[in-house]
Amino acid sequence: MEERTAGTSSSGGSRTGRNLPAAIAVGLVLGALVLGTLYTVKELFLVVVVAAVGVGVMELSKAFATRDIKVPVVPALAGLVAMQAAAYWLGASWLLAAFAVFAFVLLIWRMFTAGTEGFVRDASASVFILFYPALLSTFVALLLKAPDGDHRVLVFIAITVASDTGGYAAGVLFGRHPMTAISPRKTWEGFAGSLVACTVVGAWLVTWLLGGEIWQGALIGALAAPLATLGDLVESIIKRDLGIKDLGTILPGHGGLMDRLDSLVTTLVPVWVLMTLFL
Fold it and tell me: Percentage helix, strand, coil, to 5, in the chain?
């Protein structure tokens, strides 16, 4: 999520350039869907994850197509499903094996469906999408399979949402100094808000829900903040390189699903590592 610096305005219905009521409504619906599935049937939550990331894969594939980059969507989606299932039911080793198999499948699929011209370009983009967001997202299944997996996933999501929310609020209220030309609307003040929010939420929820130490939760949150910011920047540079404003429009007030997934997938693996070590 990007924040505008303080004092700016636009025609989007708020000084931040977003349709804020629509964004809040969509956020509440998504939150209810996540909680309703996460704390009832874990496998149903996994279906929601696969559906959301699958849309993200299609958004990226469509965006790449604007530059005549051909990504075979069918095997990429099949790889996503296979990797999520492998991670949840079989473990990390099988997840890695599934990724290797479907990376090779993508190369073969592209080789026999679109000729030789542009093969390296298309194959590179295809494996990139199989990694980001597909492979990165499968670590949520590794979090979920733990006995307290529902709590672990909730803590991970809450920390990442805190990064977006804290950064957005601090950027709007205090933002003056842009971080990078990649995303001029992202400010150092916003990053500071993200860091504080993540650290506080991490310390709180890791001790409350997972029985960990305060310093462990604070460390997880403090690590999540820069990673979530980098996730936003990765998506921003992809859009700048492709010359497009948004990867999708499926979520009113938010854009595409990748606009919601960008910080989640880049935060997920390190959070999983720390939770595995600490808990």
Answer: 75, 0, 25
List, for residues 210-246, the tens digit of each pLDDT value. 999 999 999 999 999 999 999 999 998 999 999 988 7
* Contact predicate 150/38, CB 8 Å: yes
Contacts within 8 Å (CB) and 24+ apart, 240-249:
240/182, 242/63, 242/64, 242/66, 242/67, 243/66, 243/67, 244/63, 244/66, 247/56, 247/59, 247/60, 247/62, 247/63, 248/55, 248/59, 248/62
Place of tokens 């979090």: 143
Q: Which of 5, 1, 24, 28 is nearest to 16 (CA)?
A: 5
Name every residue whose Cβ is closer than 8 Å to that of residue 109 and which is 6 or more positions away in sequence: 72, 74, 75
Asked if the bond preceding 270 is cis, omega within 30° of 0, the reply is no
CA angle 121, 127, 132 (to 5 degrees): 120
169 is written with which tokens? 């609020």
pLDDT at 9: 40
Residue 255's beta-bridge partner residues?
251
Are the C-beta atoms of 193 and 167 separated by less than 8 Å? yes
Q: What CA–CA distance (Å, rounded) separates 177 from 27? A: 28
Burial 81-94 (b: 16+ CB within 10 A, else e): bbbbbbbbeeeeeb
Two tokens at 121?
Answer: 């370009």
Structure-block tokens of residue 50: 């696969």
Only one residue has tokens 């998506």, namely 235
